[in-house]
Design goal:
The chain is about 40% helix and about 15% strand. By secondary structure, it is of the alpha/beta class. Helix 4 runs parallel beside helix 12 and helix 5 packs parallel to helix 6. The relative contact order is 0.16. The chain binds pyridoxal-5'-phosphate (PLP). Pyridoxal-5'-phosphate (PLP) binds next to helix 5.
Amino acid sequence: MRTDRGLQPKGQEPKWLDQWQQACSDLARLRLSQPMLDAVIDEVAGRMIRIGDQWLADFASCNYLGFDLDPEIIAAVPPYLARWGTHPSWSRLLGSPVLYEQIEEQLAHLLGAPDVLALPTITHIHMSVIPVLAGSGTILLDGRAHKTLYDGCSVARSHGASVIRYPHDDVGALEELLAASSVHPRMICTDGVNSMTGNTPPMAELAGLARRYDAMLYVDDAHGFGVIGERSVDEASPYGTKGNSVVRHAGESYDNVVLVGALSKAYSSLLAFIACPTPIKDFLKIAAPPYLYSGPSPVASLATVLAGLAVNDRCGDAIRADLYRKTRRVLDALEDRGIATPNESGLPIIEVALADADDIDEVGRFLFSRGIYVTLAAYPLVPRSDVGFRIQMTAANTDGEIDHLVATLDELRDRFGLQMLAERPATLALAS
Ligand SMILES: Cc1ncc(COP(=O)(O)O)c(C=O)c1O
């Protein structure tokens, strides 16, 4: 029988589960008390959502380009369903609709990468690909890497790799570790656009180190793909052009670099990819368990990827310019009010930290009551010093919704303590 201690009878839980439950106790409490967490969404209308009787402007969506609501992309789905049915229920090793081949080819072309392999989610990729690439070598893992990267490294460790964490974005510390470690293969694992700070890592330095020390740089750009891309003299925004991800944004090549990206954010579709050389792709087809055993993405998602790629090709840069303008409005409003955020990139992920982490429950209720939906950043989702909330902008948010958000931030600042520009603690300054 399930008890509030979990599935195990009292006294028999493995130790890690005790520790995990303890680490997540703030989240467990908030999940029960907070309308902003684990909510049931009853209806959507544009970027407005209804939860029970309350309509809220949604600033928690990762649909950065607004493709989830794009009429052309929605209309593209039924013909694919008519042709392919709802779901190709083979594992990819058995067979894949030709749509996969089209997607992988188009993604490789967009990214300017040697080849691409598509799997349902980034979580699948990290868990299965990191252990294969790391073997019994050494993984150097960024100290603020996403939990799914950390978990992929833990699986690799259980297969014989060593995992060493280096301080977030600290290229000097990373170089010392590379110089001191002689066990190959060596991998550096980091996020691309960071899911909390909204900032990019020092890509050129990381790629340079990977090449100099004969290591592989493995980058998770879940949030950057579709939003940032290669720079151009006539770019419509500092996001660059094409949305072809952090490697191209930094002007880097794929030498010693493997890129992982998600279609589940900017492209509003259940699919992810790894961009890598063809021999690695071929090896993953027999060595990465999700390719062998997992159910594939539904046809509707394959359809929305293909339709989304066509929209991106035609007008993606204009959408990104609009997304930048909207994001800038919020960042400027914060700056005018002296409210701190680690975001230095202008990308559409804006974290605001509370002066007192214990206010989080009240702050969540207040925002909910004012009709603003954000991601609550509770411990352990973020370090205790950063507890607060994350605002995510999408091209589908209206200027009226942004006006309302800014007015609510004014009220919030008058009622609760927020971390202000002059008071920003060192940890957040470093995270940028
Ligand atoms: C940086 C990062 N990596 C991986 C994931 C998980 O992606 P997926 O849902 O494709 O497993 C997320 C989800 O938010 C993320 O932010």
